[in-house]
Amino acid sequence: MSASAPVRPRLPSTAALRTGLAAVALAGAVCLLVATFTTVIRITVGTTSGAAVPTGSDTGWDRHGPALIVLALLAVGLLGVGLRGSRVALAGVAATGLAVMAIAMASDRPDVHATGAVGDVYAEAMADPGAGYYLETLGGALLLATGGGLLALGRMRAAAAG
Asked: Exposure pattern of 49-87 as b/e (b: 16+ CB <10 Å)?
């Protein structure tokens, strides 16, 4: 009886990893597009029956205009150039994600629980983040992570070749 060598699982190829990361970046861009037209901050007023009545909301467009759309399109364009070999473009994808995260954290996060004028009129008013806030944050995080991941993958590939 001969002892056989242990079987190691095959690691995914660099091309498969690049394709997967590119798909994740595209998902991040789609999150930004959807967040533009989705509620970022939802304001409700409680009623005597205990049910909350929506009284207002701000969408991504209300808060940022076309900024999230522009950043999503920029990320997709940079991703296309980056997949052809431009490390600067891949750094741009990560920077785009960082810009989106800055918008979400510096502009939206401080206001997600602010009731504004509705809170001045109704003591029971509550403000909560909507799906748009989570989508823009997720989109920014995905772009930041995939831009950095593709940069690291390119560096590993260059080190293995050289």
From this structure: eeebeebbbbbbbebbeebbbebbebbbebbeebbeeee
